[in-house]
Amino acid sequence: MKRIFSWEPWFFISFGLFHMHRIWALVDRETYASFWIGIMEKKGAPYFLIMGLLAGLCILGIITFVLERKSNYCWRWIYLFGGAYVLFDLFAIATGLRVWQELLAVMFDTASPYWDFVWGFFILLGTAVFVLGLVLMVKRKRYVQPRHKE
Q: Residue 109 and residue 13: Cα distance in Å, rounded?
């Protein structure tokens, strides 16, 4: 039987909000780029907190995909592909993978004519994932009967 775990809507809501915060990039390019480049270069407590949280959520999603493989919803493929991408991204940033550092330099180039397209894409992706989280929350509440104490 297919089921939606209580944490799953929050997974998508969290990732959605994380991506949607990039509206800041469209409002103030310089401050946004400076903030995130600083986080990635300093590798202080905020860096490890963010990386740990994102990695933990991705691993949880991938484990859920594998454990529920016989009764998965189609949206759980996001755990597999999105999670693998995010884990690779986190690994590449943490290890300073040269090609990834070059990609990040291009992405955070505030003079780039593609700036709005790149960050706009992440905002749209985040909005879609956030809405998916809300839909899952409604579906879960609709199909999960509350337990009554007798």
A: 28
